[in-house]
Write a structure and sequence with these properties.
16 helices
Length: 389
């Protein structure tokens, strides 16, 4: 049921991929100003993730998820009212804070309701729900935005409301019963302090390159959709279909490709291949942006993502100790959040000043450098960790 709520909620996340197009085509913002406004979504994501985790420890994950889902409903409806850069930036910031406070609370809920032996599979199911929702949401968003952007925002509000009602109805009574289970677990588990990841120099270098990779990859949420609209001349429906195809492809391929990587490659080679493929998928857009080329590019981007993002968490877990995995995961997560802030502004700035061809070739070159860096950094970290143990 938690995965179902996540699926409905993420299926409603149809606004994000079209915010850039909405601001450039409908509100007539410059590409550079659009990038600045989109950066406020990343700032809100950082604040929301931190705030959601903080409040969850205070009032519990049930209240945080319920409030996040229900409060996002009026905020989605308010977005069309704002027409200036400052106004849109403020409402997107607020919306992002409220929406992303849901994620840490949802993760806590999974650990509370899943059986101990099923926790890994429970998180995998949740990730599948996120990806499937991302395949449905943009496809719907493309259709709805072609009808009316106001209709898009109101539909997003409706899905959030639906997810909220289902969550509250199903978990209202179960929340009280689960508190007894959580209390017993808390009494059993003894938490000890581990070394801080913020003093782990090698891991900080690794996180820096994770951030650089994320800056390259997260263009899928900002500059790539603008490129599809302005340069490739795709309709909003077709943009939605391509983005929906990416999410659906990941759902189909992820488990199989992860098993291939685990069987035939080591972690360093997997990160090298995944990062390079992601960079190549962007670089090829500088030479061909026919519909077939766009589909091939998105397919390669999905394969690169599968061979990079899940393994970043694996490497982080291997580098951490038994009692500080949360701190290590948190620091690695911050590198993604920083990229969410930097990517929209930097990508749109380069696109406007130097052109999309420069942006895509530059992304490919940077990703290649990052791929080589990962190839040497990963065994360097893990070998050092094993030697220390």
């Amino acid at each position: 049921m938690l995965a179902l709520v996540m699926l409905i909620n993420r299926s409603g996340s149809m606004v994000l991929p079209f915010l850039g197009v909405y601001m450039t085509n409908h509100l007539h913002f410059s590409i550079e100003n659009t990038g600045i406004v989109l950066s406020f979504f990343g700032i809100g994501s950082v604040l929301g993730s931190w705030l959601g985790g903080f409040i969850t420890d205070k009032i519990g994950e049930y209240k945080v998820q319920s409030l996040s889902l229900l409060l996002s409903v009026p905020l989605f409806c308010l977005i069309p009212i704002f027409k200036t850069e400052v106004g849109v930036a403020c409402i997107i910031l607020l919306q992002s804070i409220v929406t992303d406070s849901f994620r840490p609370a949802n993760s806590v809920a999974i650990t509370k309701y899943a059986k101990p032996e099923n926790i890994t599979r429970a998180f995998s199911l949740n990730r599948m729900a996120v990806n499937l929702g991302f395949s449905i949401g943009p496809a719907l968003g493309g259709i709805l935005s072609a009808i009316s952007y106001e209709f898009l925002f109101f539909s997003n509000a409706l899905t959030a409301l639906s997810a909220g009602i289902i969550y509250i109805f199903f978990f209202r009574k179960r929340n009280k019963l689960a508190k007894l289970k959580a209390k017993k677990i808390k009494e059993v588990i003894e938490i000890k302090k581990g070394n801080s990841p913020y003093r782990d120099g090698k891991f900080l270098i690794y996180c820096f390159f994770c951030m650089l990779f994320s800056i390259c990859f997260f263009q899928i949420f900002s500059t790539l959709t603008i490129f599809y609209k302005d340069t490739a001349k795709l309709s909003q429906e077709n943009i939605g279909y391509i983005l929906g195809y990416s999410g659906f492809l990941i759902v189909l391929l992820e488990m199989g490709f992860v098993q291939i990587a685990e069987k035939y490659f080591n972690l360093a080679v997997t990160m090298l291949l995944g990062t390079f493929i992601c960079g190549f998928s962007y670089a090829m857009l500088a030479f061909d942006y026919s519909l077939i080329a766009l589909i091939v590019s998105m397919t390669l981007l999905c394969i690169g993502e599968i061979w990079t993002l899940p393994f970043m968490s694996t490497i982080t877990a291997l580098r951490s100790g038994e009692n500080n995995k949360g701190a290590y995961m948190g620091l690695n997560g911050i590198s993604f959040s920083i990229a969410f802030i930097v990517t929209p502004y930097l990508g749109t700035l380069i696109a406007e000043k130097l052109g999309f061809n420069t942006l895509w070739i530059g992304t490919g070159v940077l990703a290649t450098i990052i791929a080589v860096a990962f190839y040497f950094i990963v065994p360097w970290m893990i070998k050092d960790k094993k030697a220390g143990e």
